[in-house]
Design brief:
Blueprint (H helix, E strand, L loop, with lengths): L10 H4 L5 H15 L1 H16 L5 H12 L9 H9 L3 E6 L7 H20 L5 E4 L7 H6 L8 H23 L4 E3 L4 H18 L6 E6 L5 H15 L3 E6 L4 H11 L9 H17 L4 E6 L3 H13 L9 E6 L4 H9 L4 E7 L6 H13 L3 H15 L3
The structure holds flavin-adenine dinucleotide.
Length: 391
């Protein structure tokens, strides 16, 4: 077998579709994010400005929004979808409006998700649609629906409504044969989400992987959950489809567990998360004909390990059951180099009105400053490319 190595330092490929201007702009943004103090000041000022209704929308749209979001509407994302597509990178339109509630909002979110499913079906550059169950109902209802607390009458009605919303979306995706991801969220609502999504996969993954659940390997019980889900799918005769991620809510999870006095569901350290994440990738790869899976990660070691193992095992790089995925604006070196080597790659492209995507942008800014090394890695790569271009 030939020695196969991917070179994620190849910045010429990683930034091939960025103009000098775009590259310099990206550099400025990541330099800002590299400073925890400046990022915190930026976050606070943004929150105050929106509370005081100051006209900062334009400024935000031209700066951080443009780095991490595709636009305010599906149509505004069209140029991004096309540009990524030219580099063989798929788009996943992620409607990122957060922090709102009420039946009317949940119904309008459902209608927007419908539009993303329709848009995905029309365009080979959009391999997946995605939604969050907490965009379709309140946390309280999902938490209570776990079964350990009794639902009040209005909550029981809302619970029926969310089940209908999820069923309608999945039925629609299935009717179009359009694969769709369901994101994973905090552990206190995830049991309910898992139960709902499992029911959907049983119904709609009979012939093809259509509904993808998400598994967070920063939870110490999830590798086992993946294996059990696989056994269940085999027994019941459907295809398991999963997006594997490390998990985004670590601090919140640990804090709540400490405050409420229950054992934290999170792994004891990063090494344990890494070990289970890579074990989950390997497990899926070993069962690649029975499990369709997506590696949702910016971790270079995990990406390398999976890409190289696929190659070593003689499995085609673009096997229809294996996908890599990153977030728009982050880890372009992974996405572009994987795509250049014919792997299936896609990027989450968040969109929505500027004001409503602020919680998402703040999470990205905080994550970039808290995930050690993420920003400095990005900065080093951009710097290397600026030097290579002599600009
Ligand atoms: C395409 C895509 C889709 C995603 N979808 C979801 C989703 O549906 N739900 C969701 O929760 N997240 C989701 N995420 C975010 C993801 O869970 C991670 O937060 C993020 O990608 C960082 O992890 P990493 O593997 O990229 O990189 P790394 O930098 O290698 O890992 C950082 C992650 O490791 C874990 N970690 C860090 N320190 C410790 C510690 N001390 N102990 C234990 N664990 C630790 C945390 O999960 C942290 O986020 C998604 C990410 C991508 C790229």
């Amino acid at each position: 077998m030939d020695e196969f190595k991917l070179n994620f330092q190849d910045t010429a490929t990683a930034f091939a579709d960025k103009s000098n201007f775009e590259l310099k702009e990206k550099y400025r943004m990541f330099r800002l994010l590299n400073s925890r103090a400046l990022t915190n000041v930026g976050i606070t000022l943004t929150e105050i400005a929106f509370r005081l209704r100051l006209p900062v929308r334009g400024l935000i749209k031209r700066t951080i929004f443009r780095q991490f979001c595709g636009g305010e509407t599906i149509e505004e994302c069209d140029p991004t979808v096309e540009k990524l597509g030219e580099s063989k990178i798929g788009t996943i339109l992620d409607y990122s409006v957060e922090g709102k509630s009420g039946g009317a909002f949940f119904d309008s979110t459902k209608n927007e998700i419908y539009r993303t499913i329709t848009r995905a079906k029309e365009d080979p550059n959009i391999p997946f649609a995605v939604f969050k169950v907490t965009g379709l109902t309140s946390y309280e209802v999902l938490e209570k629906a776990r079964g350990d607390k009794e639902l009040l009458k209005n909550e029981a009605t809302e619970w029926e409504a969310v089940k209908d919303r999820v069923l309608e979306l999945c039925e629609y995706a299935h009717s179009l044969e359009q694969p769709v991801f369901v994101d994973a969220e905090e552990s206190w609502v995830q049991d309910t989400i898992d139960a709902l999504v499992t029911e959907m996969t049983e119904k709609f993954n009979r012939e093809k992987p259509i509904i993808f659940n998400t598994i967070q390997l920063y939870r110490h019980d999830r590798l086992e959950f993946l294996k059990q889900s696989h056994q269940k799918a085999k027994q019941d005769g459907y295809i398991l489809a999963v997006k594997l991620v490390r998990g985004a809510y670590m601090e919140k999870e640990r804090k709540r567990a400490a405050e409420m006095g229950y054992p934290s569901p999170i792994q004891p350290n990063k090494e344990a998360t890494d070990r289970d994440f890579d074990a989950a990738l390997n497990y899926c790869l070993e069962n690649v004909e029975e499990i369709a899976f997506v590696a949702g990660t910016h971790n270079e070691e995990s990406v390398c390990m999976l890409a190289e193992k696929l190659h070593e095992k003689g499995i085609s790089h673009n096997h229809p059951h294996v996908y890599f995925s990153q977030l728009y604006g982050m880890s372009d070196n992974l996405s572009y180099i994987l795509a250049d080597n014919d792997y299936n790659v896609s990027k989450y492209v968040p969109y929505g009105p500027v004001k409503d995507t602020i919680p998402y942008l703040i999470r990205r800014a905080k994550e970039n400053t808290s995930v050690i090394g993420q920003v400095s890695r990005e900065l080093d790569l951009i710097d290397k490319e600026l030097k290579r271009r002599r600009i």
